[in-house]
Design goal:
28% of the residues lie in helices and 23% in strands. It is of the alpha/beta class.
Length: 472
């Protein structure tokens, strides 16, 4: 069965709307390179569209009714949005879910050190999520995050994105001396403990009388970096202990190709699905069923922790919502969740002709062939996956075809070649119908990932169609 090319279905009006959506998406990528930044950006966007914070409604003793729009945030890293429909929530919701964390390097809690020959000061890092470590060397890197001092003061850092900002980098061995390095397997070419950022190389000059104990410090380059941090950002070395600093590729998302048909940028897994889900939710007009969009942290490391999908945040938020609409009971919450329909949105591996041997061509996601459905993910014998049922897929086929959404199905590469997971299996624990959907990506988990503008646009259209019409 041949894949349909989404580009063939567009007229000038469609192309104009596509470019508008993709411009908004590039801005989203540029402004949301961490989970905290994504949540801030999402909250600012949805509040302009009339969404109110659930916690403030609870404090005020308010109530909710059909048409109301609310949201809740947890630990500044996870956000859930609701638009209340005409039908009781106990009849189920339509849920769009995605994650907003992406592979990166995290600065360790005791990170700053100087090499024994006093050439450089480094920030020690621990990589987050599945990465090819060699892809992270010699490229410009930025530091985003927060430093929280003992008195509760929060210092926000975003260093490396502006033209006059300094950037950071991980060094690599020059090709002239790399004979032994090139004999190593790809996983060992760069070791995890070698992914340390060069943070400075200039020693601190101590004036007479300023020395500690009558002498200059031993690590003068480290002292120079600490001096900059104190003067520019007002934090000390001990404050790294309560910091969350994420190292990401520096620079903006860009159009790619002579025809500008693609977008190259950091963090598209899975912010491409997060953005299109949010945008679709904002653009839906009339709803029978309550619509929910849940955007979570920690998917790249197993959806664990208080801000991951395995936490109680989502279920607690649904319970609070139903209490505000006068529908709450433990049984009512269970009924609402079990009767819900969900698109668990995450990216799929885009077919890459350069690496044809890793793919089953007939069951691969093709760039430019529309939004993608993965009946299952997991690895080898579908281990760790949610395997969506045929009846639900048939229901979705009708919805998308009726709205003329271009879509495709895929698996994540050849059997036994590898595999991957999403948040689908976690929501499926409630008994609801769930299927993985999203956008095909080239270079997945690399510092710079590639998507098709057509697929982004079709994902937006598909999520909107699902929000309006799903009722299974």
């Amino acid at each position: 069965m041949l894949k349909k090319c989404a580009w063939d279905s567009y007229d000038e009006k469609d192309l104009k709307k596509l470019e508008k959506i993709c411009k908004e998406y590039r801005d989203f990528l540029d402004q949301g390179k961490t989970e905290r930044e994504c949540v801030d950006l999402i909250v600012n966007t949805i509040e302009k569209e009339g969404y109110r914070e659930m916690e403030s409604i609870i404090r005020e003793g308010g109530k909710l009714k059909a048409g109301d729009k609310v949201y809740a945030v947890w630990m500044n890293k996870t956000v859930v949005m609701f638009r209340i429909g005409k039908k009781p929530i106990t009849e189920g919701m339509n849920i769009l879910g995605a994650h907003i964390d992406s592979p990166r390097l995290d600065v360790k809690q005791v990170p700053l050190y100087e090499d024994i020959f006093h050439a450089f000061a480094y920030l020690d890092t621990h990589y987050y999520g599945g990465v090819k470590k060699y892809q992270w060397v010699t490229i410009p890197l930025a530091i985003h995050g927060v430093v929280v001092k003992k008195d509760g003061t929060t210092i926000e850092l975003n260093l490396g994105e502006e033209e006059d900002d300094p950037v950071f980098f991980v060094s690599d061995l020059l090709i002239h001396l790399a004979a032994d390095q090139l004999e190593k397997k790809g996983a060992k070419v760069i070791e995890g403990e070698a992914l340390d950022l060069i943070a400075g190389s200039k020693p601190l000059v101590w004036k007479k009388g300023e020395e500690q104990d009558g002498k200059a410090p031993k690590d003068v380059i480290k002292a120079g970096v600490l001096d900059v941090l104190k003067k520019s950002y007002d934090f000390d070395e001990d404050d790294f202990l309560s910091a969350e600093l994420e190292v990401v590729p520096a620079g903006k998302a860009r159009d790619a190709g002579f025809d500008r048909s693609m977008i190259l940028g950091y963090g598209q897994d899975d912010r491409v699905c997060a953005f299109t889900s949010m945008r679709a939710m904002l653009d839906v007009k009339n709803l029978d069923r309550t619509l929910c969009c849940i955007l979570v942290d920690k998917e790249e490391i197993g959806s664990v922790g208080a801000t991951g999908m395995q936490s109680a945040f989502f279920e607690n938020s649904v319970a609070e919502l139903m209490n505000l609409t006068g529908e709450y009971s433990e049984l009512a919450v269970r009924r609402a969740l079990s009767k819900s329909c969900m698109l668990s949105s995450d990216v799929s591996a885009g077919y890459d002709p350069t690496y044809d041997s890793a793919f089953d061509r007939n069951n691969a996601a093709w760039i430019g062939a529309g939004m993608c459905f993965n009946k299952f993910t997991g690895a080898r014998g579908k281990s760790g996956s949610n395997d969506a049922n045929a009846e639900y897929i048939a229901h979705l086929r009708k919805i998308l075809d009726d709205k003329k959404v271009v879509w495709q199905t895929a698996e994540l590469g050849k059997v036994d070649q590898g595999g991957g997971g999403t948040i689908a299996y976690i929501l499926a624990l409630y008994g609801m119908n769930v299927i993985d959907s999203g956008v095909a990506v080239l270079n997945m988990h690399a510092p710079w990932e590639c998507t098709s503008k057509a697929d982004i646009y079709e994902a937006y259209r598909g999520y909107k169609a699902f929000a309006e019409d799903a009722c299974f």
